[in-house]
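4.2 Preliminary Data

To establish feasibility before requesting continued support, the project team ran the inverse folding procedure on a target of 82 residues. The structure was first converted into the token representation described in Section 3, and no sequence information of any kind was made available to the design step. The complete token record follows.
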């Protein structure tokens, strides 16, 4: 089984900053998990920045802090089954 950790940000900040931030978060989380398992090559991390928001909180739209927080997340996705 292969698992991707996909990290996401809210819309605040520039697109470039958010992609970098989410990529660092995903890779840091993946590195930690890899250090705890016997087959670390099964884990990968990728940052998506603000490209996959889960609510209406995009640039120019007022949202509460709680709403923005929903977009700041890391998802674990099975990308391949053996």
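Position-by-position output of the design step:
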């Amino acid at each position: 089984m292969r698992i991707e950790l996909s990290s996401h940000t809210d819309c605040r900040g520039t697109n470039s900053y958010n992609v970098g931030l989410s990529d660092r978060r995903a890779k840091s989380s993946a590195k930690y998990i890899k250090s705890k398992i016997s087959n670390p090559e099964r884990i990968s991390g990728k940052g998506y920045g603000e490209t996959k928001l889960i609510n209406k909180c995009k640039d120019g739209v007022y949202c509460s802090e709680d709403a923005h927080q929903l977009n700041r997340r890391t998802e674990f996705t099975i990308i391949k089954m053996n």
